[in-house]
UniProtKB/TrEMBL annotation:
Function, in words: Synthesizes alpha-1,4-glucan chains using ADP-glucose.
Organism: Paraburkholderia sartisoli
Protein name: Glycogen synthase
Domain Glycosyl transferase family: 292-459
Catalysed reactions, semicolon-separated: [(1->4)-alpha-D-glucosyl](n) + ADP-alpha-D-glucose = [(1->4)-alpha-D-glucosyl](n+1) + ADP + H(+)
NCBIfam families documented for this protein: glgA, PRK00654.1-2
SUPFAM superfamilies cross-referenced by the UniProt entry: UDP-Glycosyltransferase/glycogen phosphorylase
Length: 486
């Protein structure tokens, strides 16, 4: 029997992307459809979402909701994959330029509770046949933005005296919790007793993330190691007790790579293409990248690349501390990122001091991200914590050896180039265990040491490129979860 599942999220590549969430929500539904599931997506009607879908047509009038009127539900097709996407049109809430969550001063919009409550509420309406021609059996909600969907489903179930749809909540990042003042609970239209320690209440406030974790039938997160980490006091963000209580409903399913978008053999964003057997194109990509960033055109300089949201999570402050080691050894660093202004400025200052070796580009640029992943020798992901991480997976596919901190999905996907791992043909990158400048410097020195042994470096690159992190295995695991629920 075909399972009907609705993916509920705030981002979906190529419509709208601020991070890896969009890549996953763009790639997982097609992978599930390929394996026989009947999957659609639901997104808020942010301007790029509305303009990115050619054939949007109305499906239902949802009336006046959460301070917006009229609210309508529309359905369109994503040309790239053929995915059917429901869009919530509520101009007062969603028609804003720039970042979907933050205003121009990087401050969360004051009405985010209403903006994302509407997302969860509409998911529950779809499960109750808001679209007469299609209703999901599974509502698969992603991150806090969709966290209220399982709560609205439970409320509907209580009202009707029977289940409406089953729900899965996937945690992409426990650090973003969607916390709002308790007074805002009244606007949500949830039963009063849901504002409870056993419910959406979190230390006196309202938490969308906790709603998802508490009310969903199953919880997943994006790597097996992160699934364990978030059950600890140190990394549970105040929710570890709840996660331990729900341990039997919680699993870690590794994200995959969409190789139709991230493949050096046919990547249109690159100045030259290459494969593991023919790496000449990669050298051309490196040359072009050095030129693009205006750093010294040295083919043998070990080039480190970073493509990242600039937040505390990503550990780039540690990379800054270890940068003298890279420069001293004749290495180079290029960074593409946007986010925290203090981090942006810190990076820009180093670039000004070492124009031949370090260059930084602020902003979000999909094509440049591909150029950096292809043209670098090493892609650095020194994150403090990392639920899964996609950039290190893209780096592997492009033969750019990942340098990572041993946490979360980074620990699950990269094997350190220690002598024994090299001897056993296992190494794919550089892994440091302790989050200290010394440990990072050690990994940097291993990268330089391996780079000096050209044959071994190439063998490691080729091994990295042969790793299969496609969506196949992960999609099968989600399907098994779906089948268990319906
Ligand atoms: P996270 O979701 O925590 O940001 P991931 O590694 O899972 O981390 O995914 C990051 C995604 O966002 C990757 O596709 C990466 O290429 C992309 N990305 C991050 N910053 C930028 C940027 N400044 N420009 C273009 N793409 C970026
Ligand atoms: C989050 C995490 C990242 C993960 C991505 C997609 O943004 O920070 O580790 O890869 O979601 O699941």
């Amino acid at each position: 029997m075909t399972t009907r599942a609705l993916h509920v999220a705030s981002e979906l590549y190529p419509l709208l992307k601020t991070g890896g969430l969009a890549d996953v929500v763009g790639a997982l539904p097609p992978a599930l459809i390929e394996r026989g599931a009947d999957v659609r997506a639901l997104l808020p009607g942010f301007p790029p979402v509305v303009s990115g879908l050619a054939d949007l047509r109305p499906v239902a009038n949802l009336g006046s909701r959460f301070g917006a009127a009229p609210v309508t539900l529309e359905l369109g097709t994503l040309a790239a994959t053929g995915l059917q996407v429901y869009v919530i049109r509520a101009d007062e809430l969603y028609t804003r330029h720039g970042n979907p969550y933050l205003d121009d001063d990087h401050v969360p919009y004051g009405d985010n509770a209403q903006r994302f409550a509407l997302l969860g509420w509409t998911a529950a309406q779809l499960a109750q046949h808001a679209d007469p021609s299609w209703a999901p059996q599974i509502v698969h909600a992603h991150d806090w933005h969709a966290g209220l969907a399982p709560a609205y489903l439970k409320a509907a179930e209580r009202e009707r005296g029977k289940p409406v749809a089953r729900s899965i909540f996937t945690v992409h990042n426990l650090a973003y919790q969607g916390i709002f003042p308790a007074q805002q609970f009244g606007q949500l239209g949830l039963p009063a007793d849901f504002f409870n320690m056993h419910g959406v209440e979190f230390y006196g406030q309202l938490s969308f993330l906790k709603a998802g974790l508490y009310y969903a039938d199953r919880i997943t997160t994006v790597s097996p190691t992160y699934a364990r980490e978030i059950q600890t006091l140190a990394q549970g963000g105040g929710l570890d007790a709840l996660l331990r209580e729900r341990a039997h409903d919680l699993s870690g399913i590794l994200n995959g790579v969409d190789y139709s978008i991230w493949c050096p053999a046919n990547d249109a964003a690159l100045p030259a293409r290459y494969t593991s057997a023919r790496l000449a194109g990669k050298r051309a990509c490196k040359e072009a990248l050095q030129k693009r960033f205006g750093i010294a055109q040295k083919s043998d300089a070990l080039l480190f690349g970073v493509v990242s949201r600039l937040t505390e999570q990503k550990g780039l402050d540690l990379l800054l501390a270890a940068l003298p080691e890279i420069i001293k050894r004749g290495g180079q660093l290029v960074v593409l990122g946007t986010g925290d202004p203090a981090l942006e400025n810190g990076l820009l200052r180093v670039a000004q001091a070492h124009p031949d070796a370090v260059a930084v580009e602020r902003g979000f640029d999909e094509a440049l991200a591909h150029e950096i992943v292809a043209g670098s020798d090493v892609i650095a992901v020194p994150s403090r914590f990392e639920p899964c991480g996609l950039t290190q997976l893209y780096a592997l596919a492009y033969g750019s050896l990942p340098l990572v901190h041993c946490v979360g999905g980074l620990a699950d996907t990269v094997v350190d180039a220690s002598l024994e791992n090299l001897a056993d043909d296992l190494a794919t990158g550089f892994v440091f265990v302790h989050f200290t400048p010394d440990a990072l410097q050690g990994a940097i020195r291993r990268a330089f040491a391996l780079h000096a042994r050209r044959t071994e470096w190439k063998a490691t690159q080729q091994r990295a490129m042969r790793q299969d992190f496609g969506w196949g295995a992960s999609a099968e695991q989600y399907l098994a979860l779906y089948r268990g629920l319906v």
